Amino acid sequence: MTQTTQTTQATQAGLCLEDLAVGYRRRALRPSSLRGRPGRSVRSGRAVLAGLSAAAPRGQLTVLLGPNGIGKSTLLRTLAGLQPPLAGRVRLDGADLGQLSGAERARLVGVVLTDRVQIGLLTAAELVGLGRHPHTGPTGRLTDADHAIVRWALDAVHARHLAGRPVDELSDGERQRVMMARALAQEPSMILLDEPTAFLDAPSRVTVTALLRRLARERNLAVIVSTHDLELSLRVADQVWLVDRTGALHTGHPDEVVGSGAVNTSFDGDDLRFDPATRTFELRGPL
Ligand SMILES: Nc1ncnc2c1ncn2[C@@H]1O[C@H](COP(=O)(O)OP(=O)(O)OP(=O)(O)O)[C@@H](O)[C@H]1O
């Protein structure tokens, strides 16, 4: 297993998970992934994932992988502050995210979810401008400096030409880039993205993933992205967080995680097998 050591986490620039448990308080869940696992500090029946310790440094692209329904979105929503942790702590640059006000968190954390929210008749530039709200005064009016940041954010995702277009009329790929620009316009320390490439064609998936890595480096952001695009992400990620079928979190450089066999134990099935040598999936036999 390639669990991240916790010794440097308290002072590391970026995101740190400290013995974190995530899940739902109202509905009783008893995932098989937690059955029989020791040391859980949460009441049974609630946690989707527990005992998570990991780091996602600034300047790096961290990719969150795992089978369907294992808890990736739940974890991202918790990291974004959209639902409270059941136990443990999330730190950003050493600060406990749980102790921050919503406004403070909005200045630090940019979130791009897959949910199609109703945007109304907003243009792309107006939507990206909403990303400035954590920084504007009570009127919410954008200054010239805010507009300049909106233009910069659209440029950064190669979407300046979309500025005047109604968001509702954009393609999925165009819209995804605009949503990323909105998160960038927040000038956050960290951006969380839930399956940003889910509806994109192969070239767009590569473009968006490469863009995320570039933004992490150029803006010194901690970028954490969940995806099912395993082969691509193992090529471009600086770091992998892989939740296996038992709910255990494996972290490290893609080489380490692949070498540990965790990708195989997480994804191999009757019909399909991950080949660590080629880092691709292959059929076990004729279908
Ligand atoms: N609002 C909710 N209330 C209760 N349980 C939920 C809620 N949302 C999700 N779950 C459950 O939490 C578990 C994890 O779901 P989650 O969406 O986090 O998984 P995921 O890894 O993102 O899945 P996928 O890869 O299919 O998108 C599932 O068992 C799911 O049914």
Bound molecule kinds, no repeats:
adenosine-5'-triphosphate
Task: Provide the β-strand percentage band.
Answer: 15-25%
Number of strands: 12
CATH architecture of the largest domain: 3-Layer(aba) Sandwich
Question: What would you call the structural class?
Answer: alpha/beta
Any idea what the radius of gyration is?
A: 19 Å
Tally of helical runs: 9
Mean pLDDT: 87
* Unreliable stretches covering 5 or more consecutive residues: 1-11, 35-45
Protein described:
Keywords: ATP-binding, Nucleotide-binding, Translocase, Transport. It is a single chain. With 287 residues, this protein is of the alpha/beta class. Helices cover 30% and strands 23% of the residues. The protein is built from 9 helices and 12 strands. It has helices at residues 72-79, 102-108, 124-130, 144-156, 172-185, 202-219, 230-236, 254-259, 262-267, and strands spanning 14-23, 47-57, 60-65, 87-92, 95-96, 109-112, 190-194, 222-226, 239-243, 249-252, 272-275, 280-283. Strand 7, helix 6 (202-219) and strand 8 form a beta-alpha-beta unit. The longest helix is centred in the last third of the chain and has 18 residues, at 202-219. The chain starts with 13 loop residues before the first strand and ends with a strand. Mean pLDDT is 87; it is low at 1-11 and 35-45. Bound molecules: adenosine-5'-triphosphate.
